[in-house]
Amino acid sequence: MQTLHIVTPAHTTTPSTCIGLIRLVLQHIGGSHHVIVIGNESDVSDLRAMGLPVLGFVDGPLDTSRTLARRLQELIQQVTNDGVTQRIIAWGWHPASVASAISWDTSVIAIVDEIDASCSITAGELRIIPTSWTGSECLRARGIPDDSMTEPLIGVNPVTMVVDRSAVQEQLQLFHSDVTVGIVGRLGSWQEIIAMAVRLRAANAQADFIIFPRYEYRVQLMFAAKQQGLSDILHEIPSTMRPIDVVKVVDGIWVPSVMAYDVSCSVLDVVSIAWEGVPLAVPTNHPIAGVPTVGKHIAWARDEIEVCRWLLDLARDTRTSMNETTDITTRIRSIASPSRFIEGLQMRM
């Protein structure tokens, strides 16, 4: 069977774990597989370097000309055998929204982790696989009927870790920190991050915050940090470095609460971090709280004061939360393993 994968790697709704899951499907689901990229030549080069069989790309993901769906359909007809394929998988909200505007003669599956109000989906023949129950609720709120959705599915494709800790610290300029914290979540409250930095400074704790890629409020955060004299504690991951490499050198990962006027249903990035066995602080209202058996243990932070206390404990002794972290890692690996993901995906096809 021929499977065509459509992905927009640079879009904010495409999680960093997405490419790993595509590789997982290529390795474990039979038949021929090809990838179409919505993006530019740089995106294509990066994916090919990761071993993905990219057939071609369509530029202009913002679709200002309103021709993206037509151009995608024309490309598929050009690069596939007479435009015929037996299965199409759209990886993420953006490619799903584009695919939903095309009339297909085959089944189309969309794996959706995060939702973006700027691009809409017309359900039609699209079969959507969310990654959380919160995602299912968001889809219903956007008019997607229940019969166009499946039960949620999560997964992780483990990567080989070859990290020189000192090299990562040097690139990020981490030299005299009591506690190094990775900030994950594209819509986390920048006010909450600044407030946490101020609390830690008042407690005489030297903290460094590493902002993960695709954070939406970077400009506001950097401006506020400059006003508070905190610019030196904020660090961004350079394009030459994998976020997963940073995960291995931080003392803990914090997922700030989402801004009151935003809605987020993304869980895959948090799942992948929990898989790595890193101490993790996630608010109780995060969508991952609904993951069976382990969600409530991951999403335990009731407020910023509790997170601040946790970070101060990490600054004093990084072994503080390792026993609980090991338990969470064991549980998440049992429900997000590659074999469970592939089995679950096949059941939903």
- Structural category is alpha/beta
Sequence of strands across the biggest β-sheet: 3-2-1-4-5-6
Q: Please tally the β strands and state the result.
A: 12
Task: State the oligomer.
Answer: single chain
- Biggest β-sheet: count, sense, barrel? 6 strands, parallel
SS summary, helix count: 14
- The termini sit apart by 13 Å
What order do the helices and strands come in, and which of them pair?
Layout lengths: L1 E6 L10 H11 L3 E7 L2 H9 L4 E5 L9 H12 L7 E5 L1 H7 L7 E6 L13 E5 L2 H9 L23 H8 L6 E5 L6 H13 L4 E5 L6 H10 L6 E3 L6 H5 L4 E3 L13 H8 L4 E4 L11 H4 E3 L2 H13 L5 H14 L2 H11 L1
Parallel strand pairs: 1-2, 1-4, 2-3, 4-5, 5-6, 7-8, 7-10, 8-9, 10-11, 11-12
Helix pairs in contact: 7-8, 7-12
Provide a descriptive summary of the structure in words.
This protein is of the alpha/beta class and 349 residues long. It has 14 helices and 12 strands. The protein has helices spanning 18-28, 41-49, 68-79, 93-99, 133-141, 165-172, 190-202, 218-227, 243-247, 268-275, 295-298, 304-316, 322-335, 338-348; strands spanning 2-7, 32-38, 54-58, 87-91, 107-112, 126-130, 179-183, 207-211, 234-236, 252-254, 280-283, 299-301. The strands form 2 sheets. It has a 6-stranded parallel beta sheet, sandwiched between helices. The chain has a 6-stranded parallel beta sheet with strand order 9-8-7-10-11-12. α11 (295-298) links the parallel β11 and β12. It is globular.
